[in-house]
Design goal:
2 copies of one chain form a homodimer.
Chain A lengths: L1 H31 L2 H8 L3 H4 L6 H9 L11 H8 L3 H16 L1 H13 L4 H28 L8 H24 L5 H4 L1 H13 L2
The first copy, chain A, binds a DNA duplex (18 and 18 nucleotides) through helix 1 and helix 3.
DNA sequence: GTCTATATTTGGATAGAC
DNA sequence: GTCTATCCAAATATAGAC
């Protein structure tokens, strides 16, 4: 019992470090979030941090690993099922994207991604894989099925996916920037829906 | 004559500072580009920098002011003329966008923009104005004219513009990231053209 | 206008007591 | 596992000689 208490406390502190470090990295970037500031927010000394992490870089990597956690949760069957219905496929995808955009946790991670994208090669690679390739693949399967079933006009499914995804990303970027400055996102609130409407009209037969 | 020489030399050094600082800021970000590194690249001591700039921030602001210099150069007549022809309007806009994307100087500035976007409010505001609002306005006028002339289907010109612009931005982002890692952009080389083709098929009547 | 020298601050990291 | 104390490096900036 006394052993467990000790272990639990250690884990608690580590979690708190991750949490506070994450907030500081998101706000100030890697360089801006000093070890001192992190320790201070956690409520311990710098030296105590090094009982949980080898160095600053290790803290960052642990925080950064959260950026790409669970983006979407379509499975193959779900894709096929929705794709056969046409527009609902687009709607479901866009609405999940919208949910992520406005989700507090995902928003923080997206900020961190933007801040460190050009400073961290691993982040860029993961970005390409998780934010682009994975989504393009998923969408392409859907559009391919729609095409097969005569729901949409003929075109390269990869191109259609690219066009559909790029606008979603752009909306997300705009929303993130506006929310960063505490600006109202009213004007963008329905942009996801408008995108789906416009896009469906662009490809439907 | 001796006076002019002195003044010219001063100006030369200042220009060189801007140039080297720009390269370093683009590569390392604001915090990463230390005054030491800048001075070293210029070939002078840190202290000498302060004869040309009050402080580091002032150097950065001068560099950052170059980010938004001369993006596009459509005038109202040119817009109208091209819009009346339909697709060439899209092509011209996209090709100018592509040119900027691959232009070495503009590329550096775009990197700097990405690196500092979330660290600098002024940059965000300028970004919204110069990269978004200005382009949306320009495009909207074109699409409005096309709609009036029965060249494209009926829709909100702002929405059409948003859809068209967002993909261009996304391509630019991808290209910039790949070139940053010295990856081949072959797979993206024709993406601008493909975008125009797909988009025109999406709106033409 | 540039240099040497230096002040001052901040940041990352370690040693050793408790 | 946390603390105090301390080290060392790097960064911004200034003073004063040339």
């Amino acid at each position: 019992m006394s052993e467990n208490t000790g272990i639990l406390k250690a884990s608690d502190t580590k979690l708190k470090i991750i949490k506070e470090a994450s907030a500081l990295f998101c706000e100030l970037g890697y360089k801006g979030a000093s070890v001192r500031k992190i320790a201070s927010k956690v409520g311990i000394r710098e030296s105590a941090l090094y009982n949980h992490f080898k160095n600053k870089e290790e803290i960052f990597l642990e925080v950064a690993s959260g950026i790409f956690s669970n983006p979407f949760s379509f499975d193959a069957d779900e894709i096929k099922e929705n794709a056969l219905r046409g527009k609902p496929f687009l709607n479901k995808f866009a609405m999940q994207y919208k949910l992520l955009t406005f989700d507090k946790n995902n928003e923080s991670m997206f900020r961190l991604l933007l801040i460190e994208l050009l400073q961290n090669k691993e982040l860029r690679e993961k970005f390409t894989e998780e934010f682009h390739n994975k989504n393009i693949k998923m969408l392409s399967e859907g559009f391919f099925i729609m095409m097969q079933n005569g729901l949409i006009r003929s075109a390269d499914p990869m191109i259609i996916s690219y066009e559909f995804l790029s606008t979603l990303f752009y909306i997300r970027l705009q929303v993130t920037l506006m929310r960063f400055d505490a600006l109202s996102t009213n004007s963008l609130a329905t942009q996801f829906e408008k995108h789906v409407d416009f896009f469906w009209d662009s490809i439907k037969i």
